[in-house]
Structure formats: structure tokens, C-alpha cells
Q: What sequence folds into this?
């Protein structure tokens, strides 16, 4: 563990925040030197607050050792500010975390067009649809989406990036082994496989209200630009917007319904000329085309044509190619109207190409994820994204051991035969 234990010690000291921790490292050169320093040395470094000095008196390394063991068991990487692949884009903000916990594959952030996409948990159907579409377009165009994993806009942005076969990043306000919200457990696992989960909090950290505003600085700090999709006047997304402006990041806003409370805050940003209005992923990516010509694949004409929020034309033989499983008494589709039976073609009309492919290979109940991936012949990230989307739409359910069951009903006429 060598010097790593001192990084973990310093980063988890109660009463020592990221600004003070970095100040100490800059002065002493390393957390190890901070650990072995004395009070007079701390005073020389400008640390005079009683609470901070008392915190630094705690030289117990047991917690650091436990965190290291937990990360090893959970396959979580510990990245320190002195590591070569710690993003300089993040290191250059006022209060960067001195330690990051990573699960998945962190790209070379400084070489990528990373776009944050955030918004309210209480999003409107319009906001959810737009967030998924814009994230899809950004990822399809070569950008990388970073978001939180909160309900609403954050969830749909990550889902849109996955549907495009992208490598989304999700910054959590918990430990990477904690699922919050619980309903996003599968989505969180999908991000870890296709992209990366990021947190400044060690494994086991439970959701605490103050953690989430703090993690927003990391979301914007990793990004070149931040996109706001629906934010009421009091919103965590507006905190992210404020941090983005402080950090010198570009700010983009999707115009919203002027009568909707969900859009009051985001529309104010446009009124105050703090942000650029965008209506497509192309609007966002073209701002970086000159600086990252080798990374981006832009097509203005096709920028708004994606499978997100758009019904695909079904081949005539699609319905016959898809297995119809036993009639289910479970909820089939989460829509306001109630139907005793839903025609199979109607059920499939709003599915993407990847979702249709997955549906077509799910010929049995309780199929393991590995079997579905093998039969589909598609990239695991695309299959995982499709399954997550099918589950959110109510077409599939997940069981224990990463097993899935497709839920479709026979149409009324067929069931009477």
C-alpha cells in the first residue's frame, strides 16, 4: 500500500476539506509528509483553525487500510492527484478531490470532448425525451456524457449515451458500491461496464444530502461544457451551472416551457445571457469541432435523427420474428391508458434497433445476460443499454443473477384462438 495509505488518511479526515488537503499537499509535497508533520509545521503552512489541527492529530491508519482492502475486493481503482492519469482538467479547479475512486475504464479526460448533462429529478416528459435524445447525439458524435445518476434528467442522459454505444461517466455522491437510487442499480452497473463510475467517497459511503452539491463540482470539472435540461428555481442542476461558470466552462441550456415550474431556473439562465440555447447534440459539439477535429463526427443534417424518442419503422416480418411469451398479469407498459391486451406491433413500435434485436433473441424466460449478448451478436454495452431501456419501458423484468424475462402479451384476437 506504501504511500497510498497516507492519501486515504488525508482524504477521509473529518474536518479537512479538499481545499485544505490540497493546500497541505502543495506545501509539504506529499500526504506522507503531511502525516509526519507537527503542529508548528502545520502553522507554517497556514493551518491555524483549531478543528483542522485537531483533525490532523488523528494518525490512525486503520480506516485507510480498510478502504484499500474494500477497493481491492470490489475492483475499484484509487486515483490520486499525483497520478499521471488524474485529469488535469479537474485538478485545475479551485477545490479538486485529492483522491478519486473509479470503477470501469476512465478515458483520457483531457483529450476528450466531455459534456455534462444534468437537470431536475422532477422532469417533464418533454425534458426526459430531450435529455435522452441530446445525450444520444452527443455520444454518437464522439463526445462523452458525464452526469450524476439521479432520477429524471440525469438518468435519461446516461441512458441516451448508452443507447448510442457511448462511454458515459457517472459521478456519484455515495460510495461506488452503494446503489442510489436503488431503482438505478442495473443502470449503474451498465455504466461501470461501458464507461466509468466516479466518486470522491470511499466504498460504503451512504447518501448524505451534503454530498450531492459537492459532487456537482466534479461533474462540471471533468467537462468542457455543461448542458442544463430543465431546472426549477431551486435545483441541484443550477448549482452545477454555477460551478461551471466559476470553473470557466461553457454553459448550454435547452429552452423549456415558460409556464412549467421545471424550467423556471434554466430559462432564467438564458434570459440572463449566461448560457447558449441548444436544441440538438450538434449545437453542443460544433463548439468544439475546431479544437477536437479527430474526436468528433458531426453531421448537422442528421443531428436530430436518433432512435431516442422516435418510433422506428418495423419490418413487415418483425412481429412474427419476435417470440410471444405467456400472457402476464404483470404491468406490461407504463402508460395512462389501460388495455386488457396490447397488440404486439404496438408494443414494439417505440423500440430502437438494439431493443428490437434483444427482444428477438429472448426466446425463453429467465435468460442470463451472457446468453442474450451472445445470441444478439452485439456489443455488451449496447445490449446492456437496450435491456435497461426495455425494463424502464416495462417490456422486461430483471431477476436474480443478471437474468431477464421479456413481458409481451398476445393480441386480443390471437388469444381467443
A:
Amino acid at each position: 500500500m506504501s504511500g497510498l495509505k497516507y492519501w486515504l488518511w488525508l482524504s477521509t479526515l473529518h474536518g479537512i476539506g479538499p481545499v485544505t488537503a490540497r493546500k497541505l499537499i502543495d506545501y509539504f509535497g506529499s500526504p506522507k509528509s503531511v502525516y509526519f508533520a507537527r503542529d508548528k509545521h502545520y502553522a507554517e503552512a497556514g493551518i491555524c483553525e483549531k478543528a483542522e489541527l485537531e483533525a490532523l492529530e488523528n494518525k490512525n491508519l486503520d480506516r485507510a487500510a480498510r478502504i484499500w482492502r474494500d477497493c481491492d475486493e470490489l475492483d475499484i481503482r484509487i486515483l490520486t492527484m499525483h497520478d499521471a492519469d488524474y485529469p488535469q482538467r479537474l485538478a485545475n479547479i479551485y477545490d479538486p478531490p485529492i483522491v478519486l475512486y473509479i470503477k470501469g475504464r476512465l478515458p483520457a479526460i483531457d483529450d476528450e470532448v466531455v459534456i455534462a448533462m444534468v437537470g431536475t429529478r422532477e422532469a417533464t416528459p418533454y425534458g426526459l425525451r430531450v435529455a435522452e435524445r441530446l445525450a444520444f447525439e452527443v455520444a454518437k458524435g464522439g463526445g462523452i456524457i458525464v452526469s450524476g445518476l439521479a432520477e429524471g434528467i440525469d438518468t435519461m442522459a446516461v441512458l441516451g449515451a448508452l443507447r448510442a454505444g457511448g462511454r458515459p461517466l457517472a459521478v456519484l455522491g455515495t460510495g461506488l458500491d452503494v446503489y442510489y437510487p436503488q431503482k438505478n442499480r442495473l443502470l449503474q452497473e451498465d455504466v461501470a461496464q461501458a464507461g466509468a463510475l466516479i466518486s470522491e467517497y470511499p466504498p460504503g459511503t451512504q447518501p448524505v444530502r451534503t454530498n450531492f452539491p459537492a459532487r456537482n463540482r466534479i461533474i462540471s470539472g471533468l467537462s468542457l461544457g455543461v448542458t442544463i435540461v430543465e431546472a426549477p428555481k431551486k435545483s441541484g442542476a443550477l448549482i452545477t451551472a454555477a460551478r461551471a461558470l466559476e470553473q470557466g466552462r461553457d454553459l448550454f441550456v435547452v429552452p423549456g416551457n415558460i409556464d412549467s415550474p421545471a424550467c423556471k431556473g434554466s430559462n432564467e439562465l438564458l434570459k440572463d445571457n449566461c448560457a447558449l440555447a441548444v436544441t440538438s447534440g450538434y449545437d453542443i459539439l460544433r463548439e468544439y469541432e475546431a479544437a477536437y477535429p479527430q474526436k468528433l463526427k458531426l453531421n448537422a443534417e442528421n443531428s436530430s435523427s436518433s432512435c431516442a424518442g422516435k418510433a422506428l419503422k418495423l419490418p413487415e416480418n418483425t412481429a412474427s420474428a419476435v417470440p410471444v411469451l405467456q400472457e402476464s398479469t404483470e404491468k406490461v407498459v407504463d402508460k395512462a391508458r389501460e388495455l386488457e391486451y396490447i397488440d404486439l406491433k404496438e408494443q414494439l413500435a417505440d423500440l430502437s434497433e438494439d431493443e428490437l434485436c434483444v427482444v428477438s433473441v429472448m426466446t425463453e424466460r429467465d435468460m442470463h445476460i451472457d446468453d442474450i449478448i451472445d445470441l444478439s451478436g452485439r456489443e455488451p454495452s449496447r445490449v446492456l443499454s437496450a435491456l435497461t431501456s426495455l425494463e424502464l419501458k416495462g417490456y422486461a423484468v430483471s431477476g436474480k443473477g443478471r437474468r431477464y424475462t421479456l413481458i409481451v402479451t398476445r393480441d386480443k384476437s390471437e388469444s381467443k384462438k
User: Anything to note?
Assistant: The CA atoms of residues 219 and 315 lie 41 Å apart. DSSP finds 20 helices and twelve strands in the chain. The first strand starts at residue 77 and ends at 80.
